[in-house]
Design brief:
- The complex is a heterodimer of chains A (about 300) and B (about 375).
- Chain A is mainly α and about 300 residues long.
- The longest helix of chain A is centred in the N-terminal third of the chain and has 56 residues.
- Chain A is flat, with a radius of gyration of 29 Å.
- The relative contact order of chain A is 0.09.
- Chain B is mostly beta strands.
- In chain B, about 5% of the residues lie in helices and about 60% in strands.
- Chain B contains 1 helix and 18 strands.
- In chain B, a hairpin with a 5-residue loop joins β2 and β3.
- The longest helix of chain B has 16 residues.
- Classes of the chains: A mainly alpha (about 300), B mainly beta (about 375).
- At the A-B interface, α1, α3 and α5 of A face β1, β4, β5, β6 and β7 of B.
């Protein structure tokens, strides 16, 4: 009866295993797609930088024209800066969308490469011919290297790009200063969004940490005095389970070639640091925007 | 062994004291966790279980000359413990960490007929763990552990406290890369346990054992995992004779087969079933058993968390006897353990917990059993939690 029960339980567990079959593009197709998206993203990023640069020049032109009292030149510069600010917003959105596509493409390619490594590994295990084994080992090494390269290209989760400074020039008119204040306020809104994202991620990690700690505390409190093993500790009971695949240093890395095996505590600490940095920058940018508006003689957004 | 126990406690104190060294002085060592626990319990004990490992009995003659033994007792229990982990090395290719756990528990018992007992338990355990990446093959892991336990003023039944021991154990294993989403693991393990016997408790030597074994497991999933495993272990009890000169001491061969299902979010739940088939050169301890185990941790309103552990074992011996079989080295015939805990943060780094527990172990003959029930209030302090 017990044997039958075991068999039934095992069958149920086996049948409930997650399906893994996926219909995906080949790794060559994914490589091409990824390269194309890298180029498109880079091109969009370059265009964004050009627009930013033009916007700064337009502001300077406005400032110069204003100081010279050249109203035509000032109006032209004003019109250009107005157009450019709209284009910058659109371009920024476009860069964000392309970055997301790039991340998706990279993720799909990583999965395909991972499968490719597994296949090559299985093939190399299966063949007996030493020449073929060497060839497969070379291919395996190359696929693994590509996987590592891609992992290294992933976005850093816990770092900020250097903040470009915006200052008031000696010939800046109130209108120009207000424009610069708007640029600062725009930057502040981006930091706010980033801060909210970091906050959400931190909360998720802290929940994970609380849950893990409470389970560990509970079990440790009971097992410390052998209260759950009666009447004496049975043989072999101290042997713990092997490392849980779901709890390996990087949860998505099944190759054991994780790029950054941070503990949960370290990830939380890094994000807290980033949060503080963002808060500081946000405060600085807001203060500066308020100061610019004050210098420009007041006026809201 | 006494020397080893002393060293283990000193090592635990030493490791814990690292917590008070400034972080910049500790170099590359990272604390994984550090928690201090203090608690107070009220417990009740019932039963007439005849445990061979408990030498004393608490019986007194009544005026009519009949022998009356204690079948119910209670105790107030205070406890203090600490545990944590130190990460010496955490790299892509390898990691090395030390886990430690230690504590003291003081009982003040009431209800005994001969005298009031005040048993005290000292416990400590350390584990050194190592992981090495094997590139495209998977990971190698190794663990070595040392545990010790000491009991002073060990009382008679029904207040059952496990005897003291020193335990060395270790394991080496491989966790392979997934094949079609399935992780295969293999490991070899060994254990040596020594139960020091005193002048009044020579029978504790019977519990000494050494174990060698191996286990193979396969697991699926990431958000939730299912693991099937099969284990084989060979145990030797060199102080338990068989009266057979050609095969003089007891040797057991145990085959285990089990499955565990685990989910980690939004709640933690783990359910396992394990079947055990124990065969021996001595007919007495041959049995088949099934054990069910469940662990649940779920968030509740008002920042409360509910933790539950339930463990039920049913055992059937191959040969029938008319006497109780709770003899050294074996689990109870039918053992049930249930613990329920409610925990809530009181401060940023301080949790308060209220825990209720119930344990029952019984023999399959003679209506002999042991039951323990109690409530515990615990405070858990993490000095560095923010």
């Amino acid at each position: 009866m017990i044997k039958r029960g075991f068999l039934l339980a095992f069958l149920l567990v086996l049948l409930s295993g997650p399906a893994n079959a996926q219909d995906v593009l080949t790794s060559q197709e994914l490589e091409l797609e990824y390269s194309s998206r890298v180029q498109r993203h880079q091109a969009a990023l370059n265009a964004w930088e050009v627009l930013e640069s033009r916007f700064q020049r337009a502001l300077e032109e406005f400032s110069v024209a204003d100081s010279l009292g050249d109203s035509d030149r000032r109006n032209r510069a004003f019109t250009i800066s107005q157009q450019l600010s709209g284009e910058i917003i659109i371009q920024e959105r476009r860069v964000g969308e392309l970055a997301q596509e790039l991340r998706d493409s990279r993720s799909a390619l990583l999965t395909a490469l991972q499968q490719r490594v597994e296949e090559l590994y299985q093939q190399s295990e299966a063949v007996a011919d030493p020449q073929e084994q060497r060839e497969l080992a070379t291919l395996l090494q190359d696929a693994n290297n590509r996987y590592l390269e891609l992992r290294a290209e992933e976005d850093p989760e816990t770092s900020l790009e250097p903040m470009q400074d915006i200052t008031i020039g000696p010939r800046d008119t109130p209108v120009i200063i207000r424009r610069k204040a708007e640029a600062l306020e725009f930057r502040a809104s981006r930091y706010e969004a980033q801060l909210a994202g970091v906050g959400r991620r931190l909360e998720e990690l802290r929940q994970d940490q609380r849950r893990t700690r409470r389970v560990n505390d509970f079990m440790a409190g009971l097992e410390r005095y052998d209260d759950t093993r009666m009447p004496v500790v049975p043989p072999g009971s101290r042997t713990v389970q092997p490392p849980d695949p779901a709890l390996l240093p990087t949860e998505t890395d099944t190759l054991g070639v994780e790029a950054r095996p941070m503990t949960l505590e370290e990830r939380i600490a890094s994000l807290e640091l980033l949060e503080r940095e963002l808060e500081l920058r946000l405060q600085q940018v807001r203060d500066k925007a308020a100061l610019f508006r004050q210098r420009a003689g007041g006026g809201g957004r | 062994m006494r020397f080893l126990k002393g060293r283990l406690f000193l090592a635990l104190i030493g490791v814990t004291s690292l917590a008070f060294i400034p972080t910049e002085v500790q170099g590359q060592i990272t604390w994984q966790d550090l928690v201090f626990t203090g608690g107070l319990s009220v417990e009740g004990y019932k039963g007439n279980l005849a445990a061979v490992t408990v030498s004393a009995v608490d019986c007194r003659e009544n005026p009519s000359g009949a022998l009356v033994c204690t079948e119910e007792a209670s105790a107030t229990v205070g406890e203090f413990g600490t545990r944590g982990g130190l990460l010496f090395l955490n790299e892509q290719e390898r990691s090395l960490d030390l886990q430690f756990d230690g504590g003291i528990r003081q009982f003040v018992a009431r209800g005994f007929k001969v005298r009031d007992y005040a048993p005290r338990e000292w416990v400590g355990q350390t584990d050194l763990r190592y992981r090495e990446s094997l590139g495209s093959v998977g990971s190698f892991f190794a663990r070595g552990g040392l545990g010790a336990r000491k009991v002073e003023d060990r009382p008679p039944m029904p207040l059952f406290i496990q005897p003291g021991y020193t335990n060395f154990d270790g394991e080496v294993g491989l966790l392979f890369l997934p094949v079609r989403g399935a992780y295969l693991d293999l490991r070899l393990f060994g254990e040596k346990a020594d139960y020091p016997a005193g002048a009044l408790t020579p029978q504790l030597d019977l519990l000494d054992r050494q174990v060698l074994g191996g286990e193979a497991g396969v697991a699926w999933g990431s958000d939730w995992t299912v693991r099937l495993h099969s284990a084989y272990r060979a145990s030797e009890y060199r102080n338990q004779g068989t009266f057979d000169p050609g095969d003089p001491f007891r040797r057991d061969r145990t085959l285990g087969l089990g499955a565990t299902w685990t989910i980690r979010a939004p709640i933690f739940a783990q359910f396992g079933i394990e079947g055990t088939r124990n065969r021996s050169n001595s007919r007495r301890p041959e049995y088949d058993a099934v054990s069910l185990r469940g662990v649940l941790s779920a968030p509740l309103p008002y920042d409360l968390t509910l933790n539950v552990l339930a463990n039920i074992t049913d055992k059937r011996y191959l040969t029938k006897t008319d006497f109780a079989r709770l003899v050294p080295g074996e689990e109870a015939d039918n053992a049930s353990v249930v613990y329920v805990e409610l925990v809530r943060p009181l401060m940023v780094n301080l949790d308060g917990a209220l825990r209720f527990g119930w344990n029952r172990a019984e023999t399959d003959t003679g209506n002999e059993y042991f039951e323990k029930y109690g409530a515990t209030f615990l405070l858990r302090y993490r000095p560095w939690a923010r």
